[in-house]
Design a protein that fits this description.
single chain; alpha+beta; Alpha-Beta Plaits; four-stranded antiparallel sheet
């Protein structure tokens, strides 16, 4: 018998054509369906061993050697394992995903391993192999091996348990001891966790099963969001209720994409120290990977909110100041602040007709009210009887029409906004949001009322300015032509002048 005759006969007995067909079919199907993570390494390995065994057995058969069976039986067994692997690849990587069924990787491995073992035992029994002797010998070997591989077996059992009960899944954010991060892999032996420091921590599954694991941001029937704490201190010169109101309103009004709106952020008084109150802002984070940057944004918002409210973070009581604060030094500081405000007032066209003394009086009444990027400076439909003078920075004016918010203008310092509510008492006509940090001052109704009473023509100038801005907003909403806009402006100016006089009782 020639080598090729022997090869053909043995290959048919060993189902080699079926093996090759299944292997090629599995490879083609996974490529056509773009299956995720198909397993070819073990299948190709056992298939290769099968082919080598068949070739050697064919050579021995052609040489009339009595040792052909010594290579045929192993060849049949590894061929069966390769076929089981090919079938498993088709089922788990192609068929089940098509019907939207997902089987954990470790469960797939267990099923394939059990099926491979059954196939090997079946082939060995049909080849009249004495399995009882092998089982008796393997029992002693298994006992020795089991004692030496207790940790490995524990890790495998732990990984299987994690996959079956879905208590921890890939993509979950967890905290195990001092390690906090996102689960990226659950393997036979370990679970891999990626931390925010770009580190991957390998935790044995047996350790994971014995440890307390905290699932970050998990609550049944709720979105995945994690409560964060941002601490700050304010001294007792300011009432706790005022601090909480100023900070809480600012944080809730901040349009931050990573801060959840439900539940809303809140501010609480945590502790009462000797010289200051210890406060905390609690908010819910939607993207756990950017916890520190979002905390920083919240701290910045707290700082600017305290500045606008005339409050300052507490200075530790142990700090010692050696600067002598006398009347001359205080006067110099006041003069510098007044000069800064006076320069801003001089730059605003609205106050150009005022005398030097009147502009100085306006500057003296301005209240420092800065904003950080992303904060809402005024909100549409809100009631507020003051206007803002922007010294520096950029802001965006948005108008909500039919539930859709549309950007209609941009503001760059020096500029003013909020004058409509101040002069007529009407609700805010638009929302103004800070695009950058904005240095800003606030002017209240009482100061403007005094100016108008002293200089009545100022009411006409203010009415013209308000009419121009209102018509610009109406143009953005309705798309009116230039001639109609001018007619609308004149009518608006007349109407606004009457409202200003009525609001200030002129």
């Amino acid at each position: 018998m020639t080598f090729f005759d022997a090869l053909g006969s043995i290959a048919l007995q060993s189902w080699t054509p079926w093996l090759l067909g299944l292997t090629v079919g599995a490879w083609l199907l996974t490529k056509l369906t773009q299956a995720d993570h198909p397993r070819f390494r073990a299948m190709f390995f056992f298939g290769g061993v099968h082919l080598v065994s068949i070739l050697i057995a064919a050579g021995l058969e052609a040489a009339h050697s009595p040792h052909v069976e010594a290579f045929l039986l192993p060849g049949w067994m590894v061929g069966a394992v390769a076929m089981v692997g090919a079938v498993g690849t088709i089922v788990f990587s192609v068929l089940l995903p098509r019907v939207r069924l997902s089987v954990p990787r470790i469960v797939q491995d267990v099923i394939v391993a059990i099926a491979s073992l059954v196939a090997c035992v079946t082939i060995a029994s049909k080849a009249n192999v004495n399995l009882s002797g092998i089982i008796a010998t393997s029992a002693v070997f298994s006992a020795v091996l089991g004692f030496s591989l207790q940790d490995v077996i524990g890790n495998i059992a732990g990984g299987l348990a994690l996959q079956l009960d879905s208590s921890v899944e890939e993509g979950d954010w967890v905290k195990v001891g001092d390690v906090s991060g996102r689960v990226v892999q659950i393997r036979w032996r370990f679970t891999a966790i990626e931390t925010r420091n770009w580190e991957t921590v390998i935790i044995p599954n047996s350790v994971l099963m014995k440890s307390q694991v905290t699932l970050l941001g998990h609550r049944e029937h709720k979105p995945r969001q994690w409560r964060r704490w941002v601490y700050f201190n304010v001294d007792w010169r300011h009432q706790p209720s005022d601090v909480i109101e100023a900070v809480q309103n600012a944080v809730r009004a901040q349009e931050h994409p990573l801060i959840a709106k439900d539940p809303q952020a809140n501010c609480i008084l945590l502790d009462m120290a000797d010289s200051y109150g210890r406060y905390a802002v609690r908010y819910w984070l939607k993207d756990f990977a950017v916890d520190d940057p979002t905390d920083s944004d919240v701290r910045t918002c707290i700082f600017f909110a305290l500045q606008r409210a005339g409050m300052h973070p507490a200075i530790p009581a142990r700090a010692v100041f050696v600067t002598e604060e006398n009347s001359d030094r205080q006067q110099v500081k006041t003069e510098k602040q007044l000069a800064r405000r006076k320069k801003l007032v001089d730059a605003i066209e609205l106050f150009s007709t005022l005398s030097e003394d009147e502009r100085l009086a306006v500057a003296a009444q301005l209240k420092y009210s800065p904003f950080t990027a992303g904060e809402i400076m005024t909100r549409q439909h809100a009631q507020a009887h003051w206007l803002y003078l922007m010294e520096d920075g950029r802001a965006e004016v948005d108008v909500q029409v039919d539930g859709i918010e549309r950007s209609v203008a941009g503001l760059t310092g020096p500029n003013i906004f909020g004058e409509m509510s101040l002069l007529t008492g009407e609700p805010r006509a638009a929302t103004v949001k800070a695009l950058t940090d904005v240095e800003c001052f606030r002017l209240d109704k009482a100061t403007v009322g005094t100016l108008i009473a002293a200089q009545p023509e100022l009411a006409h100038q203010l009415a013209d300015l308000l009419a121009q801005r209102r018509v610009a907003l109406l143009s953005a909403r309705e798309g009116v032509d230039a001639e109609a806009l001018e007619a609308r402006r004149k009518a608006e100016a007349t109407d606004l002048l009457a409202k200003i006089k009525q609001f200030f009782s002129l």
